[in-house]
Amino acid sequence: MNTDKLNFTFPSKAKMASFILMAIGLVCIIAMFMMDHNEDPEYHNNRAWSNIFAGSFFFMAIALAAAFFLGLQYAAEAAWATSIKRVIEAVTMYLPWGLSFMMLIFILAQMHITHIYHWMSEGIADPTSHHYDKIIAGKIGYFGTFWWIRTVLYVVGWVWFTMKLRKNSLAADKLDIDVNNSYHWKNVKLGAWFMVVFAVTSSTSAWDWVMSIDTHWFSTLFGWYIFSGMWISALVTITMLIVWLKKLGYLEFVTESTVHDMGKWMFAISFLWTYLYFSQFMLIWYSNIPEEVIYFQTRWESYKALMWTVLFVNFAFPMVMLMSRDSKRNFFFLVFVGGIILMGHYLDVIMIVMPGTVGHHWTGLSWMEFGTFFFFLGLFIYVVLNALTKAPLLVKNHPYLQESLHHSI
Amino acid sequence: MATKQIIHGVFGDEVPMMEACTKLRAAGIRIKDVFTPFPVHGLDSTIGLPRTRIAICAFIYGITGTSLATLMMWYMMVHDWPNDIGGKPNWTYYMNIPAFIPITFESTVFCAGHGMALTYFLRCWLVPGAKAKNPDPRTTDDKFLVYLELNDEQAKKAEAILRENGVEEVNHKGTLHIEPAY
């Protein structure tokens, strides 16, 4: 094994690229806030703020789902992913950044600087106010202070689990031999508990943070829909990172079978997303209850092209392209398909957020969406690659290391 | 008339067995089959088995399932007797397509799954009352068996390679008479 390729150094080109992306994004964001106005007095830069929300949420979700995926490998005691563990860990390191952006948006929303949450409006539960909304007033016990308690618990809980998993993993590297695999077992326990915590919080956080944008509407399936979207995005990100690192000459020890397995995950979770997206749509379409149908009516009227694009890119495209074994073993192909799926899921987030905030003011995708995406992408690349330099690319003390290095399917 | 010897090389572990197989193949000896108590990763390519074509079968069965379900629902729900369910009359297939998707999906999975299983059983002739084709019952317990059918010259070479690579027993199981095809 080539030992001088075990430690990743941040290529200056990649650093440059991430800064350029951030710079372009920042310029776009500033321009977006200056230009995003219309005659509606209730419209307060909603599209700009929704874009910021989408960018913050999408990349936070990638890091979160990567943490989930890492915990899953520990809880399932899976051997195959041991050789790519450091890559997954590096992706999870964006989580504190992503959550900081989310908290910033929440605080600004509470200060009434942004208006993406309808239920945060002043006097929403006060019958004398002109903002009064009877339906939201009935739900206000779930929002308000209780919402903030939950939000803080998610943020603290997720960051604690992620950091602890990483800390144990790094601590195991410091030992010459970890006789009883003590750090591994600590992480197995931690991973299992994280599965339990995440099972509940992934759904409730999706309701609290994303579904509450359309405050009048609700869907119990929504949490899994959001979760499947973030999972596939994280899998694509990890796969692309592995292929890129292999191309630079790192990760020689990651076998073709491991990458093939990541391709299978991408294929499978694309179907999970489609399954949940369609289940939610079909039940609402069939039962035809006005208070539920309104959600898809807005999308059907003002976002039809986006809706079809998202369905096509995230379902039909990966189904056809990733079905054969050869395509999953062709690295260029995997990255090409992955890149398009990743964009598809960003558009999915746009489609989830925009109708509740921008509504019929939507004029179609523009540089605003792409610019904001570039800013967060640049930041994400910088943080993840920086985290990758902090530890060797191969874990040292792990009971399944040899099995993973000889992974063959 | 050609005569071939049947040789069983019995191993106690999969690692020397794999090494022996690699060396046999390198020496140009064809391995007829290998019997193992559990699936051994990478064995297929080591003994030079061609890639399985079951995936192609699965695709064809799946497409069949999709078509059958579509035809069935179109005939029952649209063509023969249009049903009005939940205020959604079935005048055309495409207008109510979301309602037909779950059945289409299930039928596809059903046909692909059952078709694959049946194909596998038939291809391996695992039918009720079939006789076990296992050459040595110990391969269902803890032994790994390399099964060879070779002419005298190759058999000598193969036996030497097996002995060099930690074989536990080499069993000669008689000869096989092969009639020339012409």
Please explain how this structure is put together:
The complex is a heterodimer of chains A (409) and B (182). By secondary structure, chain A is mainly α. Chain A has helices at residues 12-35, 46-75, 85-92, 95-110, 134-139, 145-174, 182-210, 222-247, 256-287, 290-302, 304-321, 325-329, 331-357, 367-389, 401-405. Chain A starts with 11 loop residues before the first helix and ends with a helix. The model of chain A has no long low-confidence stretch (mean pLDDT 92). Chain B has 182 residues and is of the alpha+beta class. Helix content of chain B is 46%, strand content 19%. Chain B has helices at residues 14-26, 43-46, 54-80, 97-123, 152-164; strands spanning 2-11, 33-35, 84-85, 88-89, 144-150, 169-178. In chain B, the strands form 2 sheets. Chain B has a 4-stranded antiparallel β-sheet. In chain B, strands 3-4 form a two-stranded antiparallel ribbon. In chain B, helix 3 (54-80) packs antiparallel against helix 4. Chain B is elongated. The relative contact order of chain B is 0.29. The model of chain B has no long low-confidence stretch (mean pLDDT 90). Chains A and B meet through helix 9 of A and helix 4 of B.
Class by alpha and beta content of chain A: mainly alpha
Might you state the CATH topology name of the largest domain in chain B?
Alpha-Beta Plaits
Tell me the count of domains of chain A: 1
Instruction: Determine the most extensive contact between two protein chains.
Output: A-B, 12 and 11 residues
Order of secondary-structure elements of chain A: HHHHHHHHHHHHHHH
Question: Looking at this structure, what is the CATH superfamily of the largest domain in chain B?
Answer: ACT-like. Chain A, domain 2
Major pleated sheet of chain B = 4 strands, antiparallel
Estimate the strand proportion of chain A. under 5%
Query: If you average the pLDDT of chain B, what whole number results?
Result: 90
What is the distance, rounded to the nearest whole angstrom, between the alpha carbons of the first and last residues of chain B?
Answer: 11 Å
Runs of chain B with pLDDT <50, length 5+? Answer: none
Strand content of chain B is 15-25%
Main beta sheet of chain A:
none
Radius of gyration of chain A: 22 Å
Spans of chain A of at least 5 consecutive residues whose pLDDT stays below 50 are none
Number of helices of chain A: 15
The overall number of domains of chain B is 2
Order of helices and strands of chain B: EHEHHEEHEHE
